[in-house]
Amino acid sequence: MQRVTRTLKERILPFEYTTVSSLDVSQWRQPLEDGVISEPVRFKEALQANFVPFELGQTWGGAWQTTWFKLHGQVPTDLSLTEEQRLEVRVDLGFEEHFVGFHAEALVRDVNGKTIKALNPRSR
Q1: Half-sphere exposure of 109 (CA within 13 A, CB side)
Q2: What is the model's pTM?
Q3: DSSP E strands: which ranges in 2-122?
Q4: φ, ψ (nearest 5 deg) of residue 47
Q5: Chain-centroid distance, C-alpha 49
Q6: Nearest to residue 36, comparing CAs of 66, 9, 12?
Q7: Residue 41, exposed/middle/buried by CB under 10 A (0-12, 13-18, 19+)?
Q8: What average pLDDT does the segment 73-99 reach?
């Protein structure tokens, strides 16, 4: 089983997706009010917040604290997809395969605030 798992991780999964562009990521961490998290923050409010650049590997909030991210990217003009292919953003919030509890969760929204997808350890 270890050999199968290693082969999957090293030789199959890396080729499942092809990187076509990088993303610029910025964040806005919901401020604490007197040391307490006040939730929820509505989409329109978060959209007007002061987002700052975010680097991969940087910490992004305390337990139960909400952080909003903006992702900006450019689809290459020469990109051509077959009918079987689709363009998508792949996001890893740092999930651990063997432990599905107590991880970050997220909602992916479009520019109008419509929820597109929920992210959790079982749905990336």
Answers
A1: 14
A2: 0.75
A3: 23-29, 32-33, 36-37, 52-53, 67-73, 106-109, 115-119
A4: -60, -30
A5: 19
A6: 66
A7: middle
A8: 81
